[in-house]
Amino acid sequence: MTRWNTSHIPDQTGRSAVVTGANSGIGYVTARELARRGARVVLACRSTERGAAALDRLRSEVPTAEAEFRRLDLADLSSVRDFAAGLDDFDGDRLGLLVNNAGVMALPRRTTADGFEMQFGTNHLGHFALTGLLLPRLLATPGARVVTVSSMLHALANVDLGDLNSERPYGRWTAYARSKSANLLFTHELARRLAAAGSGVVVAAAHPGYAATNLQTAGVRMEGRRSAERAIDLGTRLIGQPADGGALGTLCAATAPHMRPDSFIGPRSGLRGAPARSFRAPWTANGRTAEALWTASEQLTGVRHDFAVPAAAR
Known about the structure:
By secondary structure, this protein is an alpha/beta fold.
């Protein structure tokens, strides 16, 4: 994977893909490049206005794109269920790729529509439920993949199984790190369960390094801290790589041939550059923690994953 870039993306014609949070940043670039290579892409976004604008932009940049916008709010499990059910008219019963990209970062304490801490609820539980609801389609599609976007900041904290909703004194960065560790634990356990079921679905994770997107400033913007927002924005522009670079890890994990299950792909340097297999904290591959988080996530979301592999896909 030395110096891997978008020119290495294989032809994606005939492949269907769902990309969450595709209205801007890394999600938008991921959707655009998949469409550029021939994939049929659903831009799954919370905001109807921003999602529609992103679709118009994508079609202007890739006139041949097969792309559409569908609303998905990962902070509302009823929206997740509605989105999954609404895909009945999309590519039959198949889905070649699910990119769990959407996320929130370092927010002041907020809760989802279902009462979960916003970062854990959006970044992990929403994607856990979405993956489970779309799993039958993935299992029915030869060569299907699930890619979940984590962060190098996962290394700041492991999940706290006794305080998944961060109800003890709240630290925004600790809560964010826990949600990103949850992404990796989910990837690890999903890969294990798929292998045990005899499925060929490949599950991997990615991170963008330090990418210049609007994610970093969302929290201080919500609090009206204009000077902090300007300072973070300036630092991000000086240090971070463009969203096009940040998306390379996701695109590599989603399309590179012979991707190993449970891989974690990101910039070789950690912050920017060509994608390669990346460092991950050892707790993100702890089987007991991964299984316990899985069980808790099923209970919290009410979504159970069915690993029955259709005979035609074996």
